[in-house]
Amino acid sequence: MSLLALKDIHKSFASAEGPVAVLQGVSLAVQAGEVVALTGESGSGKSTLLHIAAGLEPVDAGQVLFGTQDMAALPDAGRAQLRRGTVGLVFQQFNLVPSLSVGANLAFQARLAGKHDAAFCTDLAARLGLADLLSRYPEQLSGGQQQRVAIGRALAARPEVLLADEPTGNLDEATGDAVFALMLELARAQGTGLLLVTHSARLAGQCDHAIHLRNGRLA
Amino acid sequence: MTLQALLSHWARNKMQLAMLLAGLTLATALWSGVQALNAQARGAYATAAALVSTDGAARLESPSGQLPQALFVELRRAGVLVSPVAEGRFIMGDTRVTLLGIEPLTAPPGTAAALADGDLQGFLSGGGYAHPETVAQIGASDMALTPSQAVPVGTVLVDIGTAQTALGMADQISHLMLTGPAPDAMPEGLRMAQADAGAELDGLTDSFHLNLTAFGALAFAVGLFIVHSAVGLAFEQRRGLFRTLRSLGVPLRSLTLALALELALMALIAGLAGLGLGYVMAAALLPDVAATLRGLYGAPVPGSLQFSPVWALAGLAMAFAGAGLAGGQALWRLWHMPVLAPAQPRAWAIASGRAMRWQVVGALALGALAFVLGVFGSGLFAGFALLAAALLAAALLTPAALALCLRMAARLARAPVVQWFWADSRQNLPRLSLALMALMLALAANIGVGTMVASFRATFIGWLDQRLVAEMTVTPRDAAQARELEAFLTSRVDAVLPLRRVDATLAGQPGAVYAMRDHATFRDNWPLIQAAADSWDRLAGEQGALINEQLARRAGLWPGDRVALPGAGDVAILGVYPDYGNPLAQAIVTEDWFDRLYPDTPTRQLAIRTDDPDATRAALLDEFGLTAQAITDQAQAKALSLAIFERTFLITGALNVLTLSVAALALFATLVTLSGLRLVQLAPLWAMGLTVRQLAGLELARALVLAGLTMVLALPVGLMLAQVLLAVINVQAFGWRLPLQIFPADWARLAFWAGLAMLAASAWPAWRLWRGGGEPLLRVFAYER
Ligand SMILES: Nc1ncnc2c1ncn2[C@@H]1O[C@H](COP(=O)(O)OP(=O)(O)O)[C@@H](O)[C@H]1O
Ligand SMILES: [Mg+2]
C-alpha cells in the first residue's frame, strides 16, 4: 500500500472564457522513502496537483488517499489534522509566518504536530546555513534564505509525506544542490515519501522516479 | 474617459468605497448634527430673551420683590418708556408653567412679534400664547391657548390682568421693562437690573455647548481618519493605473483634476447623506439635549428640530473641507509622482517602530503639559485644555502600552499557536493603532463621564435625603390662601415651614434670597459644606446669611467673608450649603429678618413636618378643600427630583453610545481594509494544519483581547478624566464640587459593550474568512507573483 495515492484526479478552474481543465485524469503514488520528481511547463498544473495532494484544494473528480484514508471522507478538521501531523509542505513563496522569528518559524510545525525536537531543529538550522539567522524575522531575509527556512520547517516536523513546490527555485546552484541532497538524505533516513516539483532535469534525474505533466495528463 | 478609468476601481472595490463614503458621511453627520443642536438651543435662548426685553435693555425692579402697579402709570406720565410685567410659577392643566403677564400696548417688539399673528381680542379677554409643546403638555385647561413658536417652552404669555388675577397679585407687578432710554434719576425704591435672560442662559450653558462642539470635532476627526486611510489605500492600489494612464499620454494636470473631481463627487454624495443623517440624529437627540438643558439650567429649549438652509450649506462645506483634508495628501503625491516610478511595496499606513517612539515622546510632552495645566491652570478653558492634553497623551501612549502587554504575554505563552497569536497581534498593532486610539478615547470618555454622573447621582441622592425631610409640601394658590393654610395647619401638625423668596442679584450673579424659619428641621438636617462657629444660632440672631455652593465658588465667598443682600447691605456669611441642580445663586436669612427686609413677599410653598401625613393630607383635602395637585408628599418629591436628575444626564448616555459606535466603525473600517493583507499572514497557518474556523475564531479572540487590554488602559485615564470633570469643569460650569466615587459594576457593563462593539467590528471579516473556506487562502499560494 502506498503512502500517498492520487487516483484519476480531475480539476478545472472557472475563467472568463468558461472552465479551463487543468488536470484531466492524473494518477500517481508515492511510497515510503520514495522520492518522486514532478516536472512540467509553467502553468501545466504542478502546483495545483500538490495543493490537491495536501488537501488544500478540492477536486472535481478522483480520489486522494493517505494509506487507506480517503481525503474526501474527512471533515475539515480531519484534513487539518492530516496537514498538521502527516504532510509537510514547501510552497513556492509566501510560506513563512511573518510575525514569528526564523527560529520560531523553523520549530512551528513540529510543535503544532507535537513532534518538536530541539536538537534536531538546531542541527537542521546549521545544515541549512540558518544558524546565525534564528532571531531575525522573515522580512529581513533574502528569498533564498526564506526558502531554506520553509524547507527546514517542513523537515523539522518529520512528516510522512513531504510535498515541495520548486524548493530550490530561488537558490543558486551550489546551495540548491546542497539543500536537495539534505532533503533526499532525510527522506531516505526517515522513510518519508517525497513529491518534488522541479524544473531541473539534473535534479529530477537523481530521484527514484520522474513524472511529467502535460496537457493535464502525466506523460 | 480618465475619470471613468479611475472610477472603475471603486466598482471592483465596493467595500472600500463604502468605507470611504461611510467615514465622510459619519463625520459630516456628527459634526452638523451637533451644530444643529447648538443652533436650536441658542435660538431658543434668543426667543426667551426677545420676549422679555429689547436687545440688551434693562429692567427696573424693587429690591424687595413686587412693585405697586401705580408706579407704572406714574413713570409713563413722567415720560419714561416702561412696560409692566407680572410673572410667576403657576399650575396649568397637567404641568407647571411660568405665567408671563405683559401689557401688549407698551410691551417691547419681541413680545409684539409673539402676538402678531394671533387674536389680540382673545388675548385681552383672558387667552394665552404658548409654545406648541407647552400647549400639548398642559393638555386640557380653562384658558384658551394659541400655539406660537415665538414663546419659549414652559412659558404661557398672557395679558397682565390675567396674570395678576391668576397669581393673586392684585395691583402688583413683578418688574418694569425699560423700552426706551433709562430715566435720568432712578425713582425711589427702584433699581436697574440687566434683564437679558438670553445672555444669562448663554453664559450658563456655554460649557455645555462647548462640550457638544468638542464632541462633534472629535467625531469629525475620527471620521476623517477613516476617509484618509480609504483614500490612501485606493491611491496605492491605483498607482499602476496612474502610471499606465500617464504613459498613454494623459497629462498630469488632467489626471490630478480627474482625481480631485472624483473626490468632490464623493464629498457631495457623502455630504448630502451626512446632512440627512445629521438631521435625523439631531432630531433624535434633541429631546435629550433639551431635557439636559432644562434640568441643568432651566433653559427653555423645545424638543423638536427646525431645518435651516444655512446649517445645511455649512454642513456641506464641512464635507468638502473634510474630503480635501483627507484626500489632499493623495493629490499631492500624485502631483509629485514620476511617470515611471517603481511600484513601491511599502504599505500605505504602516506605522513603524520609529513612529511609535515619536508617539511616546508626544504623549510625554502632552502629559507634562496636562500636569502643568492641572497644577497652575485655572478656569474653564484651562480645564478643557487639560482634558484635551491628557486624553491625547493617553491615546498616543496606547499603541506602545499595548505592544508592551502583548510582548509580555508572548513571553509567558507556551503553546505555539498562542505564541503566534500574541506575536501576530503585536505585528498588526501599528495598522490598528489609529482605530485602537479611537477606542481608547471612547472608553476613557465613557468611564470618565459615567463615573462623574454616577458620583453625582450618589451624592445627589444622599443630599436629597437630607434636604427633603419635610413629610409633605403644599403649594398655595395665592398669598391669602397661604396665610389661611398656615393658620389651619399650625395646630394639626408638628411644624409648618413657609418658603418665601425674592429674586436678587448676589455678588453680581442672578439669584434669589430665601427665608428660613429657625427650626430643628433645618438645624439637624440641612447639610453645610463649610460653616462658621455657631452658624445656626447666629443665623437665627440675624447676624448673617447662608449662601449656596454655586455662589461661594463662583464669587470666591466663604464663611468669614461678606455678601451684599438687597436692602440689608453687607452681611456675614455663616455657612455654605450644597445646592445641586440649580444654576442660580442663593442666600438664606432667617424668616423674621426676611419679612422685615422684603415685606409682603408671598409664601410660595409650605413644608409640613408631621407624624401622620395621611391624616394631614385628608384634612387638607376634606376640611380645607385643597386639590390633590397642590400637595406633594416626600416620596413624590424624591421621585420627581430623581426623574429630573436622570433626564438631565440622558444626553451623556446618548453621546457615550455614539462615541463607542464611531470607534467601532473605525475599527471595522480598518479590519475590512486590512483583511486582504491578513490572508497572506494567515495562509501559512492554514497550510500547516489550522482550520479556517480556528483562524476565524482567533481573529475574533484577538479583537476581544485588544478591547480588553484597551479597557484596562482606559480605566486610569477615565478616572483621571472623571476627577478633572468633578474638580475642575463642574466647578467652573455649575459651581459645585463632588467627591469621586467608584462604580466597578459600571465598568463591567462598559467592558461588555466594548467587547460587543469589537466583536461586531471584527465579525464580518472573520465571517468572510470562515465562509470562504480555504479558497481565498489558497489563492495566496496559487498565483505566482
Ligand atoms: N485559484 C485559481 N483560479 C483560477 N485559475 C487558477 C487557480 N489556480 C491556478 N489556476 C490556473 O491553473 C493553471 C495551473 O496553474 P499552476 O498549478 O500554478 O501551474 P504550475 O505550478 O504548473 O505553473 C494556470 O493556468 C493557473 O492560471
Ligand atoms: Mg507552480
TrEMBL record, chain A:
Q: Which GO terms describe its cellular component?
A: plasma membrane
Q: Which CDD domains match?
A: ABC_MJ0796_LolCDE_FtsE
Q: Could you list the residue ranges that cross the membrane?
A: none
Q: Which Pfam families match?
A: ABC_tran (PF00005)
Superkingdom of this entry's organism? Bacteria
Which Gene3D superfamilies has this protein been placed in?
Answer: P-loop containing nucleotide triphosphate hydrolases (3.40.50.300)
The protein in question is named Putative ABC transporter ATP-binding protein
From TrEMBL, chain B:
State whether keyword Transmembrane helix applies: yes
User: Which Pfam families does this entry report, sorted A to Z?
Assistant: FtsX, MacB_PCD
Report the residue ranges that make up the ABC3 transporter permease C-terminal domain in this protein: 214-334
The answer, when asked if GTP-binding is one of the entry's keywords, is no
Q: Where in the cell is it found?
A: Cell membrane
Q: Which GO terms describe its cellular component?
A: plasma membrane
Where the record annotates domain MacB-like periplasmic core, the positions are 434-619
Q: How does it sit in the membrane?
A: Multi-pass membrane protein
Segments traversing the membrane: 214-235, 255-286, 310-335, 356-376, 382-406, 434-456, 657-680, 700-730, 750-770
Q: Which residues form a coiled coil?
A: none
User: Which terms are listed as keywords in the entry?
Assistant: Cell membrane, Membrane, Transmembrane, Transmembrane helix
Q: What is this protein called?
A: ABC3 transporter permease protein domain-containing protein
Organism per entry: Roseinatronobacter ekhonensis
